[in-house]
Amino acid sequence: MPKMILDDGFQSYLTEDAVLVGAPGIPMLMDLNNTQIPKSIIPFSKALHCKNKRQYVHFYQHDREFSRVLTAPTKYLPLLEEYDGIIGQNILSTSSKYQYREGYFGTSSPHGGSYTRNISAEDNLGAATDFYNRIAYGGKEKIYSDNMRITTMSDGTIITMRKISTSDGTPVVDINISRSRGSGGIKKQKIHFVKEVKKK
């Protein structure tokens, strides 16, 4: 019988500082005040045709079962929004709120190439922090200063947030996919969160 070599996607460094419990050494989850415990869960492949929407959709399946979501997340948002929630897939929690299209968030900035983006918000620092927390969820974070936080994701993507950018002083989130082994369709970009100007 021929042997198959499979990559299980495990990144050991993500458990370096974790508290391990039980004989198998399972990492203990943090005690989060805002944690919601699903009453029922369903894999994405079955969620496509399920009538019971009072469940959370998960993606703990082989990549072939949900790769279509990574390449076209906005296509499946209407379906997933019918369910109580989703487990995993950071891009899905950011795509509708932050204008995700064809690998980019926000709109093209007039002060740079296609990789320089703008997102307008009344509370631009709050929006930048919310975006960063969503897109970097599940990664390994290092806080270098009050101004800079850097998260390395399991696929190698590096996400950096600065409260004050050196170019224009706005909060900025940089998504670097140069070391990524599968960024889910997201392209390299630097997103400036600019103050929304209200029309009088």
Walkthrough of the structure:
By secondary structure, the protein is an alpha/beta fold. The protein has 2 domains: 51 residues, no CATH class; 89 residues, no CATH class. 18% of the residues lie in helices and 24% in strands. It has a 7-stranded mixed beta sheet, with helices on one face. A 3-stranded parallel beta sheet has the order 3-4-5. A two-stranded antiparallel sheet has the order 1-2. It starts with 19 loop residues before the first strand and ends in a 5-residue tail after the last strand. The model has no long low-confidence stretch (mean pLDDT 80).
Please render the helix and strand layout as text.
Elements: E1 20-21, E2 26-27, E3 41-43, H1 44-47, E4 56-58, H2 67-71, H3 73-80, E5 85-87, H4 90-95, E6 107-108, E7 116-121, H5 124-135, E8 140-143, E9 148-152, E10 158-162, E11 172-176, E12 189-195
Parallel strand pairs: 3-4, 4-5, 7-12
Antiparallel strand pairs: 1-2, 6-7, 8-9, 9-10, 10-11, 11-12
